[in-house]
Design goal:
This protein has five helices and eight strands. Strands 1, 2, 3, 4, 5, 6, 7 and 8 form an eight-stranded antiparallel beta sheet that branches. The N and C termini lie far apart (50 Å). The model has no long low-confidence stretch (mean pLDDT 93).
Length: 188
């Protein structure tokens, strides 16, 4: 059934990049605080090499993933086949948050040029330490109908200043009080 891989080969890379949605899970250090699991979409992930992936992190109502990754680096990405043969792939690793104006952001976000009009708040890069698959027999089949258009419309309506205000109000700290976006905290 499940097996581990030493690297993200061409077959795994093709499977990962073909998924329309993936899930990111993180947790704060210690036994308290909230575990977070976030769905991601909009063609926001790229396999960088055999042991690294990156995804665009868009403005949202919370900043848990960024806060947790900044605190302890732990992250897992999960990809489920909702079409075709059943399969689940998990990438465990150590994350790094690259915000606009910080090292690495420009070179990483360039891989996502078609998303520059959206509210990109960061790129999360993951150094993958464990690659494993599992059967996915219980994952249902779904038909992909297309991307949602609310995020691009919402960001255009808010405008650059409105987005910055939103990040200051919603993305400066996590629900557990951990530091979120550096720029949001600096301008609060």
């Amino acid at each position: 059934m499940g097996k581990q891989f030493s690297s993200i080969d061409e077959q795994l890379s093709a499977f990962i990049e073909a998924q329309h949605v993936f899930f990111v899970a993180t947790a704060p250090s210690g036994s308290s605080g909230h575990v977070n699991c976030s769905p991601k979409g909009l063609d926001s992930l790229r396999v960088l090499d055999e042991r690294r992936v990156a995804y665009v992190d868009f403005v949202g109502s919370g900043v848990e993933t960024i806060a947790h990754v900044r605190e302890n680096g732990r992250i897992v990405l999960m990809f489920c086949a909702f079409e075709g043969p059943p399969k689940i792939v998990r990438l465990h690793g150590r994350g790094t948050v690259h915000e606009p104006g910080h090292d690495g952001f420009s070179s990483l976000v360039a891989r996502f040029e078609h998303h520059l009009d959206l509210a990109v708040r960061a790129v999360v890069e993951v150094e993958v330490t464990r690659i494993a698959d599992s059967c996915g027999y219980a994952v249902p089949l779904y038909d992909y109908q297309g991307p949602r258009h609310q995020l691009p419309k919402w960001t255009r309506k808010k405008g650059a200043e409105g987005i910055e205000d939103y990040k200051r109000n919603k993305n400066s700290v996590s629900i557990d009080g951990l530091p979120g976006l550096a720029r949001a905290r600096a301008s609060s």
